[in-house]
Write a structure and sequence with these properties.
10% strand; single chain; elongated; mainly alpha; hpI Integrase, Chain A; 3 domains
């Protein structure tokens, strides 16, 4: 796989999948592996992925393999409320808070954020350069001064903002994710909201894309934001959430600084009334 140009993270997850199958079946016997998949309590999408991993393994071992016919079922991603996202962000540790806020504001992939370097940040212009993964496009995205302050409070012990350059990026992100899962469960239990337990790093990418589309109604803008090369991957966000009839939070700005703070928090300008500016944001 490495010779064929697969990413290290893909190789790692494939090896983990094959080891998992080998614990439950004779992996050198295709029929034994297929029998395990047939009886396993796994979704069709997961079985399809494992079948692909097995097919690659058997090609490598020159073992004939009649790949089973599993077809993954496409599902719309879960989109949390912004209040739920903010509750999660405010309840985790400092490093996780900055990481989650970055994902929320930019829609970056978790791996892109994990590999962010200090040199990718421009605190003056409040932008961040995204080095793409998964064959997507590089992009420059705007971030809030609040997020810049969060990041600047973190120690600069590595060329990377969130990870150590001496550790494997895939394994260290997995360890970081496990820490997030524990804190997420604690917050969900304390607030008695199981929806928070469904929020993952990738969920925040879906959240950003969905809210950005319904704010701009510009699918090409969302495509550029996410770094997609194929608009088909972006079109799913045009029908994820129907915001018609949603309630709004209304805020008033009496000066430029207040207006600036509201815009950075995601509020949209509505109108001028009695010398003040009205802003709103969906709940």
């Amino acid at each position: 796989m490495r010779k064929q140009g697969y990413r290290e993270s893909t190789i790692t997850y494939t090896m983990q999948a094959l080891r998992s199958i080998a614990k439950r079946a004779n992996i050198l016997d295709p029929e034994s592996a297929k029998a395990y998949l047939a009886s396993a309590s796994l979704g069709e999408s997961r079985k399809e992925k494992l079948s692909d991993d097995l097919a690659r393994f058997y090609r490598y071992k020159n073992i004939p393999f009649d790949k089973p016919r599993y077809r993954g079922v496409e599902k719309l991603p879960f989109i949390p409320l912004e209040t739920e996202v903010d509750q999660l962000i405010s309840g985790v540790g400092r490093k996780l808070t900055a990481f989650l806020q970055l994902l929320k504001e930019t829609g970056m992939r978790p791996g892109e954020a994990w590999n962010l370097k200090w040199t990718d940040l421009d605190p003056i212009n409040r932008t961040v350069n995204v080095a793409p993964e998964k064959n997507s496009r590089p992009r420059q995205l705007s971030i809030s001064s609040r997020l810049i302050s969060m990041i600047n409070r973190m120690p600069q012990k590595s060329i990377y903002v969130f990870r150590s350059e001496s550790r494997d990026p895939t394994l260290s992100l997995k360890t970081f994710s496990r820490c997030f899962f524990k804190q997420r469960k604690r917050i969900a239990d304390r607030l008695q909201n199981l929806r928070i337990r469904a929020i993952s790093f990738k969920t925040l990418r879906h959240f950003k894309a969905t809210t950005e589309y319904h704010r701009t109604k510009d699918i090409l803008h969302v495509m550029q934001l996410l770094g997609h090369k194929n608009i088909t991957n972006t079109l799913v966000y045009t029908h994820l959430v129907d915001f018609e009839g949603d309630e709004f939070v209304c805020k008033v700005a009496k000066n430029v600084d207040q207006a600036k703070e509201l815009i950075e928090s995601g509020f949209d300008y509505v109108a001028d009334v009695d010398g003040t500016k009205l802003f709103r944001k969906r709940k």
